[in-house]
Write a structure and sequence with these properties.
mainly alpha, about 0% strand
């Protein structure tokens, strides 16, 4: 459930795999913490206000981590229109997942979010004319069956929340497919800075329509922590994929689901159902299959 990039610019190195795995595991902890705090705060404040705080603080964190190495060169681009379009879609995706978190258990929302690679594969097939093939087609069908298992349990609030979670996965999948084209000319740092900057602008413009309430001291600290966790998660996720092959570090991203189940049980008493665990497992295996197929195709 990230705002992250798909292809960092530096060339991955096999000897950096252990460090890349540590970065990826650290990113999953940061993302899980940001998600849990967001679910807590959205019970009190509008989802737009929570996302505004997150994007502002994340922008500051990413700028402090990126710009000392890149300087103002990070803003050089010839695709400003595509950056805007991508950020609009990402803004809607983030709104959907936060609404979902306010209506359903955190583990269920995270499990559905992991179906984004399935939708990305479909969008890539339609927009980029990438062939699906038999193996990828089977992975898609099985993966969507896993999503149906996660979505199916019956309470109305869960169902409505699941619809928003699916909407987030669809939107994020479309962003993933679009970034494949942009990453040919744009660095990971440029994609990150523009994404964070435009999302901050969009949430600031939307805030008057959804309401803004001054947070208490403790809530303000939590809202800032959301952005700090998310910012470090973005950076560590990007670093993991920039120094090690995606096929080596990508599978560890699914540890986010483990943290989500643990946090959901600890703070909200959410006990994962058998269908949630089974559906989540199917979605994860399908995503890993697609990742393996993609990595095999690139190395061929």
């Amino acid at each position: 459930m990230t705002d992250s990039l798909e292809r960092p610019a530096p060339r991955p190195r096999a000897d950096k795999v252990p460090l890349g795995i540590l970065f990826m595991l650290g990113a999953t902890v940061m993302f899980a913490g940001s998600t849990a705090l967001s679910k807590w705060q959205v019970d009190t404040y509008s989802f737009v206000e929570v996302l505004l705080f997150r994007s502002v603080v994340s922008l500051i964190v990413c700028a402090l981590l990126i710009m000392p190495r890149t300087g103002l060169a990070v803003f050089r681009t010839q695709r400003i229109g595509q950056h805007v379009g991508r950020s609009v879609t990402q803004t809607l995706a983030q709104a959907c997942i936060l609404i979902a978190l306010s209506l359903m258990p955190i583990a269920g929302a995270m499990a559905i979010n992991f179906s984004a690679p399935l939708f990305a594969t479909l969008f890539a097939a339609f927009w980029l004319r990438e062939p699906i093939g038999l193996a990828r087609g089977l992975a898609l069908v099985v993966g969507f069956c896993g999503v149906l298992l996660v979505v199916s349990p019956g309470a109305d609030s869960f169902t409505i929340g699941a619809l928003f979670a699916v909407a987030n996965a669809v939107l994020y999948g479309s962003v993933t497919a679009a970034v494949r084209g942009m990453s040919q000319t744009e660095s990971a740092e440029t994609l990150t800075i523009y994404q964070m900057g435009f999302m901050t602008l969009f949430f600031a413009l939307a805030t008057p329509f959804f309401g803004f309430a001054w947070p208490t001291a403790s809530d303000a600290l939590a809202l800032v922590a959301i952005g700090v966790f998310n910012g470090f998660g973005q950076y560590w996720w990007t670093r993991a994929l920039s120094i090690a092959p995606p096929s080596a570090v990508g599978p560890f991203y699914y540890f986010s689901l483990v943290w989500a189940i643990v946090l959901g049980y600890m703070f909200w008493g959410d006990i994962p159902t058998l269908t949630l665990l089974l559906g989540s497992g199917i979605v994860v295996v399908s995503g890993l299959t697609l990742l393996w197929r993609e990595s095999s195709k690139k190395s061929a």
